[in-house]
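Subgroup meeting minutes
Present: P.N., E.W., G.H.
Scribe: E.W.

1. P.N. recapped why we're keeping a running log of single-chain structure predictions: easier to compare across weeks, and new members can see raw inputs and outputs side by side.
2. G.H. added today's entry (389 aa).
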Amino acid sequence: MKERLLARTTATATVLATASAALSLLNSWSMPSLRAPHHRVTERVVVCIPARNEVETLPALIGDLRRQRSCTDLRIIVLDDDSTDGTASAARAAANGDPRVRIVTSTAAPPNGWTGKAAACAELARLAAEDHPLASMIVFVDADVRLEPEAVAASTRLLRRRGAALLCPWPEQLAESAAERLVQPLLSWSWMSTLPVLLGNATLAPSMAVACGQFMAFDAAAYRSIGGHGCVAASATEDLDLARALRRRGFSTAVASGAEFVRCRMYRSGAELRSGYSRWLWNEFGGPVGSTAAALALSVVYVLPPIAAITASGSTRRLGSAGYLAGAVSRMAARRREVGSRFGVRDALDAAVHPVSILAFVGLVAESHVRRRRGSLTWKSRPMPARQP
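Output recorded in log:
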């Protein structure tokens, strides 16, 4: 009886893993990507950077922005959000008197019910409207992002060509440590293996939105029409909720591959990674019940097959091997699209331990719920709002 149940469950898991691999391959081939523009972008674009204790990363980003090409009317606003590490001084040195760059320092705490990042972005949007009322695009970029010289212009052109209110060029997620390599590639894999991107970009369904807060290019009028970051003030996933808010108002949003143009190393240690993911994973699946269901489904589809391949025999073993291979292919296809020409042997080796990545992710989801229940969720040394939608 147990053998029959294992065989049936493994067969089901293998079918689902194979479908996931097929979808990842389809998305890898068909999703839109940034391309160097053939013509200059002449509209005014304001790039906004929230920065809290980013002395090590912000100067490089400012340098990247000062070197942007094909964007003739670019302005940059940096908000030093009550940093304690000399972020503002480092930013001024990196700006080197460039008149396109404005650096503002704030010591104000986020208002009650606001996350620090949402409050900082709202203040940046206010400054952008005050300084550049005729700007037609507003772009939010995290301080740890790196940009190639055509990144802003390419994003602007693709957003306008699609007629979208929001474009998120998905950055390559740089991963160096073992913990990063286990978890970071799951970000793009999670939606590339479950959502047909062409359909997701074509529909206004909020449930099919994909967004990444590391780089968000907005039509300025559409952003203001939904209340900007004020409509997601307490959200743990403000990027996704902004995309959903736009769609509910009838605006289209799109995700594209930022390979070769945008990259980001979010975390530099296992401790940073755990803190970062625990901040929002509790909210990812709609609550404890949804998280439990998702953890069980992921474990069955991607962890059970390799276990069956090792412990079972006959057709069950073969099915388990096929399911494990499908999971690895799914992971590799997503990663290949994310990193472009930088895809290498190490990425393939990381895909080979995809089941371990899934177990690590399940552990992070559990930790996020535990920390939320204890009221110990923080980010950038600030507590998260007690109540979040």
